[in-house]
Structure formats: structure tokens, C-alpha cells
Request: fold
Amino acid sequence: MRNPILIFSACCLFQSTLFGQQTLDSSRHRVGFKPFLAPTVLLVGGLATQGRFSRQVQNQILKRFGIVETKADDFLQFAPTVVMLGLGTAGVRGRHELKDQLVLTILSHGAAQAITRTLKYTVAYPRPDGDGFESFPSGHTTTAFTGAALLAREYNGRSVWFGIGGYGVATTVGALRVLQNRHWLADVLFGAGVGIGATQGVYAIYPWLRRKVFRSRKSVFLPIYNGYSAGVYWVVVL
Reply:
């Protein structure tokens, strides 16, 4: 059996190189299939490895490494996003200004988490450790790869190492979820695809949103908190 972690890492580093030569000029908005190639591969890979293959991989990992006890992934999942916004706050110019980066962050994470949460509670796939039925896809991995995609889109024009670093951290998060026996390989592959794909989709439609929606006086963001989680409502009158 080929090493699944190496395959996973190769897909993610391939995604990073796609934007190594992107311009910092936000006026260029040509959209093609290329930005969606890597997330498509990851999504298909997540579906293809679901079930028997993921169980075989999990058994091999448990035999070789046992269960890794760590909370590092709980913090690392946010690292790429924090770095991206930190660079913008510090005045390091990215593809967009800080205010646009904030909006892109909210939209990308919102879209990615909406997809992930919906699938978690509709698919209801059991976790490998038997603790719950919210395994597919991995929320931690989705969050990490959303942040990595944001970091790459904003700062790969300055250095490809921003993307490589972001995707490296995100890959570590996905690997830790498997090593902790909290997720199957399929969960992290699909979660990575959702995170990257949602971000690429948001960037693709963002020029239209800026032109048609954000310049309208008939839109407003409303913060919400229900005692358990926080979020933002976006109300638009077209």
C-alpha cells in the first residue's frame, strides 16, 4: 500500500504551487479550472477512499504508531488564517487590502463550514474511535485548509513559501486527526477539498460581490451569538 500521508501531502503542495506566480494586482479576475483542480482531486479522493480503504489505512496506522495524544491540532487549525490576517494588519500588502481580506475570510470560512457541518449531520458517519457520528468530513481539516488557501491566494505573489508553509501546517492538522483516531483518511481528504474549494469559489465570485453587493447601501452584516457559537448574518436586498 502506498503511504497515504505522502499522497495527501503531495496533493496539498501541488495546490500551493498553482499560485506561485500570481499577481498582486487585484484588478485581474480571470477564472479558470486550474484553481479548482487540486480541491477536485481531494474531494474525489475523499469519496474514493471512503469505507474499506480508509479502515485498512487506519488499522495500519494504529499498528505502526498507536494513538497519538495531542491537542496541537485544536490550535494549528487556525494558524494559516491568523498568519494571513496578521500580515495584513501589519501592513504587508497582499492581493487585497485588509478590509477585503476580512470579508474574504468570513465568506470562505462561512461557506466551508456550512458545507462541512451540513454533511456531518446528514451523512452521520461513525468516527474511528466510536465516539460520535460526525466523522465525515473533518471540521479541523476544513478550517486549516480554508486558512491555507486564503494565505496562498493573498501572499503567494510575494513568496511561494507562504503557500507551502500554510499547506504544510494544514496537512499536519489533517494527519494529526487521523493519528488521534478521530478521523478516517477519507474525512481529511474531503475536508481539505472543501476548505480549498470553498475559498477558491469565494475568490472567483468576489469581484461580482464587490461590484453588485458590497457597494449597495442595502446590505448589512449582523453579528450573532446563541450561547454556544458565534457567527455573522449577511442581509442583502437586491
